[in-house]
Amino acid sequence: MTKVTIFGAGNMGSAIASVLTAGGAEVSHITSSATGATIDGDVVILAVPYTAFDDIVAKYGQQLAGRVVVDITNPLDFTTFKLLPAADSSAAAELAAKLPDSTVLKAFNTNFAATLATGRVGEDITTVLVAGDDTDAKARLGELVTGGGLNVVDAGDLGRARELEAVGVLQMGLAVAGQIGWTGGFATIK
């Protein structure tokens, strides 16, 4: 059984936990403000704001070494709805640089919590896009997600995280403007 530790127990952290538990994982949560907690997951999901990365790396960087770390953030300025990292970077790339002994993946950032919880975007099965440089790590996460009833698409290497973050920010902006619902979003159809 794969053990997963999720930082954050909000809407996204809870929805991801439900999917991965249904997929056969044993899931535990750590709040981002916790100090001294022990990470026991082989896979660690950061279901926290982008601005929490530095604090988590400072407190848990050594424990994250050797683990798969999944970044679900859409790093944006909430006043302008523009991406924060430089145009040639991403939150996931920044995280990978801070955690050189971890395997960083980008996933779940193009999904809303409601579509993870229901497993649907409209009439279609929710699809989780995953980017990363480690094929085995992506496959491991993918097995948990598909085991939980969702679809997975390998979006390429970690360099694709920038595009995934742009899609996530676009989707959030559309929802905030009322052009799509928080139960909607994008789906991939094979």
UniProtKB/TrEMBL annotation:
It holds the Pfam family F420_oxidored. InterPro entries: NAD(P)-bd_dom_sf (IPR036291), P5C_Rdtase_cat_N (IPR028939), STEAP_metalloreductase (IPR051267). The keyword tRNA processing does not apply. SUPFAM superfamilies: NAD(P)-binding Rossmann-fold domains (SSF51735). It comes from the Bacteria. GO terms for molecular function: oxidoreductase activity. Residues 30-75 form the Pyrroline-5-carboxylate reductase catalytic N-terminal domain. Keywords: Oxidoreductase. This is Pyrroline-5-carboxylate reductase catalytic N-terminal domain-containing protein. It comes from Acidipropionibacterium virtanenii.
